[in-house]
Design goal:
globular; Rieske Iron-sulfur Protein; single chain; 39% strand; 7-stranded antiparallel beta sheet; 10 strands; 3-stranded antiparallel beta sheet; mainly beta
């Protein structure tokens, strides 16, 4: 459920831009006034969004922009530490941070578009 003080949903992309286990759509959010990279992907037909920040050490995880998948496209892999994360839950399943999770963002698909929902902690970046 979106936070009542969060404001309107933010358009990320057309739903077709998120291909099943394909490259992520990258975006930024404000966390405590600081720009933080984030990403959205489609897994098993569902949209998931996370901060692009490893749970082990806060570094960006993609090995190329928008590319988070291991070779088999089963897990997200941190290009820096090799941590593997379950894409539906963000839970670390292997590597230096077992049991920790990626920070999830509220993202949903509606009428052919994908939106993320700001919260008190995460706000949209405004030009």
């Amino acid at each position: 459920m979106p936070d009542a003080q969060a404001g309107a949903p933010e358009l990320l992309c057309d739903a077709a831009a998120l291909v099943e286990r394909g490259d992520a759509v990258l975006f930024e959010v404000l966390e405590h006034g600081q720009r933080v990279p984030a990403f959205a992907v489609r897994v098993d037909g569902q949209v998931h969004a996370y901060l692009n920040r490893c749970a082990h050490v806060p570094v960006e995880m993609d090995w190329q922009p928008g590319r988070f998948w291991d070779a088999e496209k089963v897990y997200f892999v941190c290009a820096v530490h090799g941590a593997l994360y379950h894409p539906s839950s963000g839970q670390c399943v292997s590597g230096p941070c077992p049991g920790k999770r990626l920070q999830a963002l509220d993202a949903r698909e509606h009428e052919g578009r994908v939106y993320w929902y700001p919260s008190q902690r995460f706000q949209p970046v405004r030009a």
